[in-house]
Structures are given as structure tokens and as C-alpha cells.
Amino acid sequence: MKPLTFTSSLEVYDSLEELSRDVQDLMLEAFKARDTAYAPYSKFSVGAAILLENGETVIGSNQENASYPSGLCAERTAFFFAGAKHPEMEMKKVAISAKSLQRLIESPVPPCGACRQAMVEYEVKQAAPIELYFMGEAGKVARAKSVQDLLPFIFDNSCM
Ligand code: THU
């Protein structure tokens, strides 16, 4: 038997102001995207903004459905949109923000497992990390250097 050990770390910033101007701008795009969420069932809005290598920003928000599983998270909406709009363009950074109608969220809201799996596909495809910044409505912001830091021991095309 050989143990496999995974280590990953996040950086947590007290506020958005601690981050660089370009990350602040990207997060502001995520806030705007969040306002486009269609979330009448959960009343939980999420916005994602992806910075591409050409400087363009592609956004997404969660889109819910009366048939609950037919809805989609903000991150996958944004990544699939970016993949469809610029199939060969590298994705550099993604900013994500979540807001609840029930309470003020001031701690980072991490992407769900299904979104991590969907996002890591693009990281593998482009063979370069995608930096993630995620937060609630206000307050602390977490940074991961890559999607794989949030999803070690991935299932990808090399497993097939
Ligand atoms: N949601 C996202 O958009 N991203 C996540 O990573 C977690 C959850 C959405 C899905 C659903 O519309 C609502 O938040 C509540 O789960």
C-alpha cells in the first residue's frame, strides 16, 4: 500500500479592496451577472465572470427551472458560454459571487462539485490553470490558484 496525499491551499482576503484592480473589475462583472440570475425557486443568485486571454469577459448566472434538475449553475452557464463563443481561447480567471434573499452572505461561497468537474475540463483542455476568486454578496474573498486546487484526483480524459 502507498498512501496518496493531496494538499491544496486557498488564500482568503478580508475584502475585495485587497485584490488587484483587474480582479476587482472582474468581480464587479460577476455582481452584475448575479443580477441576471433566474432563481425564483431558491432565491439564491449566483454570478460568474470569466476573463479570457484576449481581455474579453464572458458572464453567466444561475438559471432555474420548475423541473429543478433542468436548471443550471452560474459557473457552468458561463464556462459553456465561453467555450461556445471562443472555443480556442484560454480562460485566465473567473470571479464568482452569490447572494441570498434570506440573509447577507459575507463568507466565500465555493462552487458546487458539478461545476468544479465542468470547469476542470477546460483547465485540462487548455493545459493551463484558471484562477478562481469567489465570495458571497460582500466581505471575504477566497482565491484558488487553479480549479484542480478545489478538485484533486480528477476524472478527466486520461482516465478513459
Ligand atoms: N448554484 C450556482 O449557481 N453555483 C453553485 O456553485 C452552487 C449553486 C445555484 C444553483 C441554484 O440555482 C441555486 O444556486 C441554489 O442551489
Question: What layout of secondary structure does this protein have?
Answer:
Blueprint: E1 11-13, H1 21-34, E2 44-52, E3 57-61, H2 74-85, E4 91-100, H3 113-126, E5 131-135, E6 141-144
Parallel strand pairs: 4-5
Antiparallel strand pairs: 1-6, 2-3, 2-4, 5-6
Residues 39, 42, 44, 46, 62, 64, 71, 73-75, 111-112, 115 line the site of tetrahydrodeoxyuridine.
Pfam family, one: dCMP_cyt_deam_1
GO molecular function: cytidine deaminase activity
Protein name: Cytidine deaminase
Features:
binds tetrahydrodeoxyuridine, single chain, Cytidine Deaminase, domain 2, alpha+beta, six-stranded mixed beta sheet, 160 residues
Summarize this, please?
The protein has 160 residues and is an alpha+beta fold.
Description:
- With 160 residues, this protein is α+β, with helices and mostly antiparallel strands.
- The chain has one domain: Cytidine Deaminase, domain 2 (3-Layer(aba) Sandwich), CATH 3.40.140.10.
- 25% of the residues lie in helices and 22% in strands.
- The protein contains 3 helices and 6 strands; from the N terminus they run E-H-E-E-H-E-H-E-E.
- The protein has helices at 21-34, 74-85, 113-126, and strands spanning 11-13, 44-52, 57-61, 91-100, 131-135, 141-144.
- The protein has a 6-stranded mixed β-sheet.
- A hairpin with a 5-residue loop joins strand 5 (131-135) and strand 6.
- It is globular and about 50 Å long.
- The chain binds tetrahydrodeoxyuridine.
- The site of tetrahydrodeoxyuridine has 13 residues, from strand 2 and helix 2.
- Tetrahydrodeoxyuridine is lined by residues 39, 42, 44, 46, 62, 64, 71, 73-75, 111-112, 115.
- This is Cytidine deaminase.
- Keywords: Hydrolase.
- Belongs to the cytidine and deoxycytidylate deaminase family.
